[in-house]
Amino acid sequence: MTVLSENDLEFDFSTAIEAICFDDDALHKQSTMKRVDFIAEFSDRFIFLEIKDPDNPAAANSDAFKKKLLSGNLIPDLAGKYRDSLWFRTLSGKANKPTHYIVLLSMASLEPALLLAKQDELQRSLPIKHTDWSAPCAQACVILNLEQYKKQFGTDSVRRLSAGE
């Protein structure tokens, strides 16, 4: 069973062929490349997972995060993480399946309409498709809150460590 943690959230990737912590300096040496947190390989796809957890009880400054989200400064950062990670995997010969980009935004106070608006903004920022490309750069690109993530991947797919779940 593969279990990976990002601060206060623990993820169960037991159904994956492989799951790695991609945001690891040992893997990338000295690089200015932006990286998604985790990459999980399944038989039919890769999932690139980026975690933002301002609801973490130990979060340093959740107000600053919310300001970054509302100002529009977070989305270009999220897009850059995906593009750089996909570029790295492609050049490493490890991009032979469709890729799904999932941003887990654990922020209970976030309105569902704002979540959808930010998802649309992220899709435009990547961009998903281009007239010169033979295929989209991502099969899916979604921003999910914790509840939506659990509905999509199962109630045991993620747990908050500080809650003792």
Q: What is the overall pLDDT average?
A: 92
Strand line-up in the sheet with most strands: 3-4-5-6-7
The total count of strands amounts to 8
| 3D shape | globular
Element-by-element helix/strand order:
EEEHEEHHEHEHE
Q: Any guess at the CATH architecture? A: 3-Layer(aba) Sandwich
Termini Cα gap: 18 Å
Total domain modules: 1
* Number of H/I helices: 5
pLDDT below 50 for ≥5 consecutive residues: which ranges? none
Entry summary:
This protein is α/β, with parallel strands linked by helices and 165 residues long.
SSE layout and pairing:
Blueprint: E1 3-6, E2 9-12, E3 18-21, H1 25-28, E4 38-41, E5 46-52, H2 62-71, H3 74-91, E6 99-105, H4 112-125, E7 140-144, H5 146-153, E8 158-160
Parallel strand pairs: 5-6, 6-7
Antiparallel strand pairs: 1-2, 2-8, 3-4, 4-5
Helix pairs in contact: 3-4
Question: What do you see in this structure?
Answer:
The strands form two sheets. Strands 3-4-5-6-7 form a five-stranded mixed β-sheet. The chain contains five helices and eight strands, in the order βββαββααβαβαβ. The longest helix has 18 residues, at 74-91. The protein has one domain: 3-Layer(aba) Sandwich (Restriction Endonuclease). It is globular, with a radius of gyration of 15 Å. The chain is an alpha/beta fold and 165 residues long.
